[in-house]
Write a structure and sequence with these properties.
Blueprint: E1 4-8, H1 13-24, E2 28-33, E3 45-49, H2 58-61, E4 65-70, H3 82-103, E5 107-111, H4 114-117, E6 125-126, H5 140-159, E7 162-168, E8 170-172, H6 181-190, E9 196-198, E10 201-206, H7 207-220, E11 226-229, E12 232-235, H8 236-247, E13 254-256, H9 258-274, H10 286-292, E14 295-298, H11 301-307, H12 314-322
Length: 331
């Protein structure tokens, strides 16, 4: 009987891409899905129901599992969702690790974020040893991901769970909620509405490199070690211009200075406080202005040298992000 690999967050953009790669590689995969959640269907794929915030639901999900990729989390960087992020990102990660220990799982790859490492000052390219006390800002998302890492690694060291941490940068994966981030940006570029980008820059990871680095971390990563998964450090203007080229739109984007973003962010925060649903808030809120107006760059050297993580050409990365061209008249 084949050993089972459990993937949490398997129905998200990154989880789905990883699950497809594992299945294509011949593995038997169990996808952890919340009761009533969307499901996938494929040969050698089993759906197991459970909720990372409900420890009692995880024992059955871990039955017969040899390896776990833990991707489930709240990834929308809004401080208004701090409580939910703490429940899912932090306590949920601990619950998964605890259940893995109890089930005798061989190895866990905990998918964290570069946010957990900290946000470096302009001119600094952070690696896994970056001192978070030097971070230029902080937010609820970074705090919950950092706390999750600490809880999982402490538990693993105490109870003998073989755990590796990967810290992906902003992953360029197709799909996802069109209200947010890259999906929304791709839609704007296709409609000719992408005209300006923030003044800062960010580290970005091709979905191919994310999948490759995460799988290699499972096979050969050093237990208790972090690995930054990244492809390139780009300004937002470079991202905008490359998106326009990828979708076949002429021209280039302008750069928006920080002074133009801060008033809009304050207004958006006011509207967000009036909304009952934090997920309806704009991402352009005060806590994110610092992220958009600085060059937050990271060094993937450890993952490349120790894991042999691939480095996808930029044209391929942007082509993967935009996906197939929609049929005429379809948006």
């Amino acid at each position: 009987m084949n050993e089972v690999t459990l993937v949490t967050g398997a129905t998200g953009c990154l989880g789905a891409a990883l699950t497809r790669a594992l299945l294509d590689g011949g593995e038997t995969v169990a996808a952890l899905v919340e009761p009533g959640g969307a499901v996938m269907s494929a040969p050698r794929l089993e759906i197991r129901y459970g909720d990372v915030t409900d420890p009692g639901s995880l024992a059955a999900a871990m039955k017969g599992v040899a390896r776990v990729y833990h991707l489930a989390g709240v990834v929308v960087p809004l401080d208004s969702m701090a409580d939910r992020m703490w429940q899912v990102n932090t306590l949920g990660s601990y619950n998964i690790a605890r259940a893995a220990v109890d089930a005798g799982v061989q190895r866990l790859v905990h998918v964290s974020s570069i946010a957990a490492i900290g946000y470096p000052p302009d001119g600094v390219v952070a690696d896994e040893t970056f001192d978070v006390r030097d971070s230029v800002t902080d937010n609820a998302y970074a705090t919950t991901k950092r706390s999750a890492e600490r809880l999982v690694l402490d538990l693993s060291a105490a109870d003998g769970l073989d755990t590796v941490v990967v810290n992906p940068s902003a992953v360029f994966a197709p799909g996802g909620d069109p209200r947010w981030a890259w999906s929304r940006m791709v839609g704007a570029a296709r409609r000719g509405l992408l005209r300006a980008m923030p003044v800062g820059g960010t580290a970005v990871c091709a979905v191919r490199d994310f999948v490759d680095g995460t799988r290699k971390a499972m096979r050969q990563g050093q237990a208790g070690r972090r690995y930054i998964l990244n492809t390139a450090n780009l300004t937002y203007r470079e991202i905008g211009d490359r998106l326009l080229t990828a979708v076949g739109r002429p021209g280039s984007v302008r750069t928006l200075p920080s002074r133009a973003l801060r008033p809009v962010a304050r207004v958006n925060a006011g509207f967000a406080r009036l909304s009952r649903d934090p997920m309806r808030s704009s991402l352009l809120v005060p806590e994110n202005v610092e992220l958009l107006t600085r060059q937050l760059y990271y060094d993937q050297g450890r993952a490349v040298s120790e894991l042999g993580m691939t480095q996808t050409p930029l044209d391929t990365m942007f082509g993967d992000l935009i996906g197939p061209t929609p049929a005429r008249g379809v948006r």
